[in-house]
Amino acid sequence: MIGFLFFAILGCILLGAPIFVALGMGTTMSIMLEGTFPLTLVPQRMFAGLDSWPIMAIPMFMLAGNLMDQGGMSKRIVKFANASIGFVKGSLAMVAVLASMIFAAISGSATAGTAAIGSIMTPAFREKGYNMSFVTVLLSAAGSIGPIIPPSILMVLIGYSTGASVGQLFLGGFIPGVMIGLALMVYSYIHASRGGDAYLQTTKFDPKEARRTLFSALPGLGLPIIIIGGIISGVFSATEAAAVATLYGFLVGMFIYKEITLKDLPGIFIKSAVTAASIMIITGAAYIFAWFITAKQVPQLLIGFLNSYITAEWQFLIFLNVVLFIVGMFMESFSAIIVLMPIFFPVATAYGIDPIHFGVIVCINLAIGYVTPPYGATLFVACGLTGKSVREVVRFVPPVILAMLVVLLIVTYLPQTYLWLPQMMIG
């Protein structure tokens, strides 16, 4: 029956069905053929999957990110980043990375970060004479930091799927996200050193300009501080932090930056609702799939199979990273989390892997998937901004992936480099 389940899902995908249709249809057909469970379980389990307190954070964080972006936060972040590191060789590329890291702490979305920062930075890259194929891949990789640095929508789904603390997952992603940003900056510097005169143009550091742009961006920069500080101190949960972020984004955009009017609100609400609904419908369909494979004891079967070949934790971590890297190349990240977590999380637990460690590994792997073809969500967004095709930019993908993989290896085998931060919540 499990073989038929995966065959049915794959068949639906090959026929061009959306992932939520493939999951829902394949699982429903399997339940019908099984004959043990009533079909009424399908809507019941789908509703149960969405009737969750942590899931409520997803639409609210999306709304908060859209409010901050529409309210003028992204362009103020770019100005602040340029004033801070504009004097370094290859500074424009580093500004894009730094701005993406800061925007990640507001939006939690890879594609939103790529679109917001990329649309502002692309004209400047063209004006300076940068190689736009390099720029496309860099914007894509920088945008992929969005799901790692808190608040992260992927982390919310991982916490929902595994039962791990979303607050601890948020804190667990902070240091790895910064490490990836620094790795991309190092790559930008190396590329600039070999790239010619266009990359050597810098702006003289002006302390007054740095202070002015910092002051301008400060209201928006306060959001991640409030979220992380509130979670660490225990003032509010991750879901409550999403509500605080939404209110904060509304107040900053409308009353401080004054770039949001009442006429803009319906469009912002609709945009946020449409994006959140696409995640919710995948979550509902995937939840019934996850319930069915758990009922058929697939995780237990996988544990037994792996125990025959993998005897150590480090070996399982290699296997996990390889599988997730491949999945990230072909599968949408939200679907991958809901589908794979019920299978791999019990296995990881059996090997004694910390749930936060496991969640961060999953998140980084799927973030890398945003850059790698053929799925490459942020890569396609960046290509749309720069007018380049995937074929034109693909030669710049391996160095970026290598930089991110170095961080992934550190995170995988030296977990205490970042786990001390989420452990502060326990202490």
Walk me through what this model shows.
The chain has 427 residues and is mostly helical. It has 2 domains: 1-39, no CATH class; 54-426, no CATH class. The chain has helices at 2-14, 19-34, 41-50, 57-70, 73-85, 91-107, 110-128, 132-143, 153-162, 166-195, 207-233, 238-256, 265-295, 298-307, 313-330, 333-350, 355-369, 377-386, 390-393, 397-413, 416-419, 423-426. Helix 5 (73-85) runs antiparallel to helix 6, helix 6 packs antiparallel against helix 7 (110-128) and helix 14 (298-307) packs across helix 16.
Task: Please give a quick description of this structure.
The protein is mostly helical. It has helices spanning 2-14, 19-34, 41-50, 57-70, 73-85, 91-107, 110-128, 132-143, 153-162, 166-195, 207-233, 238-256, 265-295, 298-307, 313-330, 333-350, 355-369, 377-386, 390-393, 397-413, 416-419, 423-426.
Q: What helical percentage do the residues reach? A: over 70%
Strand tally: 0
Largest sheet, in brief, is: none
Using only CA atoms, what is the Rg? Answer: 22 Å
Approximate shape: globular
Determine the mean pLDDT: 85
Order of helices and strands: HHHHHHHHHHHHHHHHHHHHHH
Query: Approximately what portion of the residues adopt beta-strand conformation?
Result: under 5%
Domains, number:
2
- How far apart, in Å, are the first and last alpha carbons? 46 Å
Compute the number of helices.
22
Q: Spans with pLDDT under 50 lasting ≥5 residues? A: none
**What class, by secondary structure content?**
mainly alpha
